[in-house]
Amino acid sequence: MKEKFSFSGRPAAVGDPGPGECLPPVSRKKRPRSQNPLIREKKIFLHFRSAGLRSLFSVQGGEMVHAQRVVTGLRAVCLPVAVFLAAVLLLAGCNREKKEVRREVIRPVKVMTVRSGPTTFTLSFPGTVRAARRAVLSFKVSGPLVKLPVEEGQRVKKGDLIAQIQKRDFQTALEEARARALEAERQFRRYKELYARKQVSRADYDRYRAARDVARAQLEDARNQLRDTSLLAPFDGVISKRYVENFQKVQAQEPIVNLQDITRIEILIDVPEQVMAEIRDKEEKLEIVASFDAIPGKEFPVKVKEYSTQADPATQTYQVVLIMDQPGEANILPGMTALVTARSTLEAGAGTRTITVPAIAVMDAAGNRPYVWVLDRKTGTVHRRFVTVGPITGSRNIVIRKGLKGGETIVIAGVTQLEEGMKVRPWEKQREGK
Question: Residue 80 CB: number of other CB atoms within 10 A?
């Protein structure tokens, strides 16, 4: 007897309809999910191609909708995560590529070969002109002015009257001092005779002699004060400044006029310490000249008059005073500017290093330690070399006293971008047409 099979492929049970028979009405009573063989045997395959994943789910009964929601949620989560991971990997790869490219960069620099030999030592400094002899005149006594015959810019001779204070009070004081001096002299002579006859003690004699000396000093002081009511020119010169007006009451030591002798002029310059050493040690070998805007195209020889041995705390420079005669071509006045140029030749040998390099090639490390970048031609790398610098030989070059030797190659352009051991490529100017 043939067995009956249900749609699901299992043997037909008693009461199951045969082929072509209608199924009985399905009861609406829900059977337990675990007892539903049809749903228990169903399997659904879910494919997640967008995320490159494949999942297998066994779904029972009414959980089909729930599975679809799970799939949608997984797609919403997995897709951004996959995009984020891809972006991170891409950025990491880019950074790696950038680092690799940076390592491969060989910086072009401008270089020069160091040479030694005679070097022209040329320095230029701005200066300020002042009179070789100058004085601010004032009275030693106080009182009202009655004469002030000079004006600014006026030339005066030695002994000329500059200003006059009223003399009346000083003449009176002089007469009183003269009277006291005469009385003190008379008393002293009398006691001198008495002391000679042993009629007074030695102490009395000494007391009147001291009184006589004091009266004489007071008389001399009164004469000087009367003389000091007249202010006279101590030398030939020009009144460059007048500080008071006539009939004004002035005090002792108050400035009255500024008198300057401009037949000789001085020029003040400030020089750094390296140059100061050259001026001090090689002054006789220096050719120093000055030029003025008032006399264009001409230079005048000057000499070192004096220099300070204490540096200015603000600028760390030393003041040097130069002197020269007034040039005949023009009248150089105090306050004008000058350009001072010092020239000398530094010869090789005798312990003098005459290697010069462009000033822009010398860098300054922390602690005031100058250095240059030296190129190793074999490896194509640069290395820091500390040096001892000398004076500036012009506006662009500086003397290297120690640390370099002839034939070495240094970097003279692009020095601020270099690092120790960096590979560089000497820059060469391209020819036209290439």
Answer: 9
| Domain contains 17 | no
In angstroms, the Cα distances linking 291 to 13, 129, 295, 318, 324 are 132, 11, 7, 21, 12
Same domain as 214, residue 173: yes
User: Any idea which of 3-12, 71-80, 261-270, 386-395 has the lowest mean pLDDT?
Assistant: 3-12
Distance of alpha carbon 230 from alpha carbon 162, whole angstroms: 8
Determine whether 184 is exposed, middle or buried from the number of CB atoms within 10 Å of its CB (0-12, 13-18, 19+): buried
Q: What does the block give as tokens for 282?
A: 């090689």
pLDDT digits (tens, 9 = 90+) for 6-65: 444 445 444 555 544 444 554 455 455 444 444 444 444 444 444 444 444 444 444 444
Q: Which domain holds residue 220?
A: 134-256
Report the distance separating Cα 108 and Cα 270, nearest Å.
39
- Residue 75 domain flag: yes
Instruction: Tell how far CA 400 is from the center of its chain.
Output: 22
Going by DSSP bridges, is the β-strand pair 143-147/161-165 parallel, antiparallel, or unpaired?
antiparallel
Return the pLDDT at 328: 81
pTM value > 0.85: no
Domains in the chain, number: 4
Q: Where does a domain end: 209, 238, 256?
A: 256
Phi/psi of residue 187, each to 5°?
-65, -40
168 domain residue, yes or no: yes
- Are residues 153 and 217 located together in one domain of the fold? yes
- Please check whether residues 238 and 285 belong to one and the same domain: no
